[in-house]
TrEMBL record:
GO terms for cellular component: cytosol. Keywords: Isomerase, Pyridoxal phosphate. The keyword Isomerase applies. Its cofactor is pyridoxal 5'-phosphate. This is Alanine/ornithine racemase family PLP-dependent enzyme. GO terms for molecular function: alanine racemase activity; pyridoxal phosphate binding. Residues 8-223 form the Alanine racemase N-terminal domain. It comes from the Bacteria. Transmembrane segments: none annotated. InterPro entries: Ala_racemase, Ala_racemase_N, PLP-binding_barrel.
Length: 382
């Protein structure tokens, strides 16, 4: 294949999902599997479901529609509030939307009425990270209003931390969420079945502290990449290499290390200083900033990333490589998002079970760290 491709090992995703589902079920927490980094890939969604997630979530309607069109039956949550004019589509494909504006709930109510059904809403509460959600002091009034809106089922409260300001989920903020839930239930005389405490950044909290009323976490990055977004460290026992990016070489030539001529800004601002250290093998692979965040790539041993422009990723390799030869990279979340979104990167799935299930019990998380994947050393051109 001559274009860059992302290889996705669905078994590793399933095993990661199962490990997290098992861990959290011991704490009374269900897992919503978040598919947005894969643009709502039905294959990835099915792997998450096989691993035991109770529902799927995505921030984009388009992705949820893809899941529904692929015949996925699991309940779907729209994680980012729809706009009022998207209400019909939201109601048609999702069972729950996470919301924070009464105008949006009114639009969802009207849409659900037109479809002759009802729609669940999870009211998002702002607990310090300053992204979406209403202030705690406004929760009671809004929840009362929503619970009395026709065709709307107030399904619960949710919050999201560690995305904008990096605020860490803690006993304090999670306790505040639990207390709000209990207070609402008393004051409004209703039961809130879903208390969604956050995303993958909540895992350390969930392992260390009692969950209180929190009974759902929305997990994307931890299932897909096996790492903790607060530290970007691998979660023990999870696979960190379910995704890899394979890119063909287009040029591999001996070149000097320092530029020649007067320099101004490069295509993406001031280039990192290049000091003369003699001649090296400079290898270019056919991918660029349009398709990937170069900072988020882990090259194979013996290969380093020197620079990236729109369409060229410039590497240093130990030997010259033949054009067409492939180099395999690991990806972080930012790189994954961009490669999945680029129309120039194809996706391929690995589904071969590496071990018969009867012989390999699912990995239990948070055991000794997994050894990082062995990466392909780059072979020399004869
Ligand atoms: C993306 C997203 C998630 C999942 O976050 P991860 O860090 O990938 O687990 C959860 N909730 C909301 C609202 C999101 O937008």
């Amino acid at each position: 294949m001559t274009c860059p491709r992302v290889e996705i090992d669905l078994d590793k995703i399933e095993e990661n999902a199962r490990a997290l589902v098992t861990l959290l079920s011991g704490r009374g927490i269900d897992v919503t599997g978040v598919t947005k980094a894969t643009l709502g890939s039905p294959e990835v969604a099915k792997a998450m479901i096989a691993g035991g997630v109770v529902r799927l979530g995505d921030s984009r309607l388009e992705n949820l529609e893809i899941l529904r069109a692929a015949g996925i039956q699991a309940p779907l949550t729209l994680l980012r509030s729809p706009t009022p004019d998207q209400a019909d589509r939201a109601v048609a494909c999702a069972s729950i939307s996470q919301v924070s504006e009464i105008e949006v709930v009114k639009a969802l109510s009207a849409a659900a009425g037109r479809l002759g059904g009802s729609h669940g809403v999870v009211l998002m509460v702002e607990l310090g990270d300053l992204r979406e959600g209403v202030l705690p002091g406004d929760v009671l009034d809004l929840a009362r209003h929503m619970s009395r809106t026709p065709h709307i089922m107030l399904a619960g409260l949710g919050t999201n931390l560690a995305c904008r300001a990096g605020v860490v989920p803690s006993t304090d903020n999670m306790g505040e969420l639990s207390a709000l839930v209990s207070r609402l239930e008393v004051e409004l005389d209703l039961h809130l079945p879903i208390v969604s405490g956050g995303n993958s950044a909540n895992l350390q909290w969930a392992i260390a502290a009692p969950a209180g009323r929190v009974n759902d976490l929305r997990l994307g990055e931890s299932i897909l990449l096996g790492c903790d977004p607060l530290t970007r460290k691998p979660l023990h026992g999870l696979h960190t290499d379910a995704f890899s990016l394979v890119v063909p070489v287009i040029e591999s030539l001996a070149k000097p290390t320092a530029p020649r001529g007067d320099t101004g800004e490069a295509a993406f601002g001031v280039p990192t200083p290049m000091h003369e250290r003699g001649t090296i093998v400079q290898t270019i692979v056919s991918i660029g900033r349009q398709d990937v965040d170069p900072e988020g790539l882990t090259p194979p041993l013996g290969v380093s990333v020197l620079a990236a422009s729109s369409d060229h990723l410039v590497l240093e390799t130990q030997n010259r490589l033949a054009p067409g030869e492939e180099i395999r990279f690991g990806l972080d979340y930012s790189a994954l998002l961009r490669v999945m979104t680029s129309p120039f990167v194809v996706t391929s799935f690995t589904t071969t079970k590496r071990h018969p299930p009867s012989l390999s019990p699912p990995p239990s998380p948070f055991l000794p760290p997994v050894i990082p994947p062995v990466v392909n050393p780059t072979p020399a051109i004869p």
